[in-house]
Amino acid sequence: MLLEVEGLCVNYGHIEAIRDISFTVEEGSVVTLIGANGAGKTTTMKTLSGLRRVRAGRVVFDGNDITHLPPYERVKLGLSQSPEGRGIFPGMTVRENLDMGAYARKDKAGVAADLDRALGLFPRLQERIAQVAGTLSGGEQQMLAIGRALMARPRVVLLDEPSMGLAPKLIQQIFSIIKEINAQGTTVLLVEQNAAQALKAADEAYVLETGEIVRSGTGAQLAGDESVRAAYLGGDL
């Protein structure tokens, strides 16, 4: 198993944001966490990235306990994130943002190859390569955030709300690209409020409610679960 989360507990002050959650991410898969606002999805992603301190439990990546590793060490091991809200550097160009994704790498030929890969996935970024990132559209900024995460050549890419605020046509495009990223060999852990799209894309899925995992199964199983459909899919896919 490439990524294992075991009994994870995370607090914000005295408030338990995550309570004893456990899940696994198999190499080569797409795994999604769905749930309402405040369920603990983004906290989970930040904890996996090393941005939140763990109160209890552990995170294991490729057999190594990374629970207390700093974020930059996790990136070097192969865990990178496209954060909620995109988090691009608005005053830098598209190219400079992408270069920042590879800041820890020394393999120039590999970085050049991954830049070509990112621009192949997102041709719009090629067209905007010298443009200041803060002037991009919302969809273009999301493409840039994902492309920047891929520049670290991750084994697992963490995608936090990649469809947030996007028009339906762009959402379809982003999910097609997520499938292509996975097809090219990158394992994907996805947090997404668009549960219908997320479950269609996912091999495995988990439902978070108030910091706890309350259901799990394949994407298809959860998409067919009546309680999940009623709560997150409007009764229908």
Molecular structure report:
By secondary structure, this protein is α/β, with parallel strands linked by helices. It is built from ten helices and ten strands. It has two domains: 1-78 and 154-237, Rossmann fold (3-Layer(aba) Sandwich); 85-153, no CATH class. The strands form two sheets. It has a six-stranded mixed beta sheet with strand order 6-7-8-3-9-10, with helices on both faces. The protein has a four-stranded antiparallel beta sheet with strand order 2-1-4-5, covered by helices on one side. It is globular. The protein starts with a strand and ends in a 5-residue tail after the last helix. The model has no long low-confidence stretch (mean pLDDT 95).
Per-chain topology:
Blueprint: E1 3-12, E2 15-25, E3 30-34, H1 41-49, E4 56-61, E5 64-65, H2 71-77, E6 79-82, H3 94-101, H4 108-121, H5 123-127, H6 138-150, E7 156-160, H7 168-183, E8 187-191, H8 195-201, E9 204-209, E10 212-218, H9 219-223, H10 226-232
Parallel strand pairs: 3-8, 3-9, 6-7, 7-8
Antiparallel strand pairs: 1-2, 1-4, 4-5, 9-10
Shape: globular
Low-confidence stretches: none
Report strand %: 25-35%
Rg (CA only): 17 Å
Q: Helical amount among residues, as a percent range?
A: 25-40%
In the CATH scheme, what's the topology name of the largest domain? Rossmann fold
In short:
This protein is of the alpha/beta class and 237 residues long. It contains ten helices and ten strands.
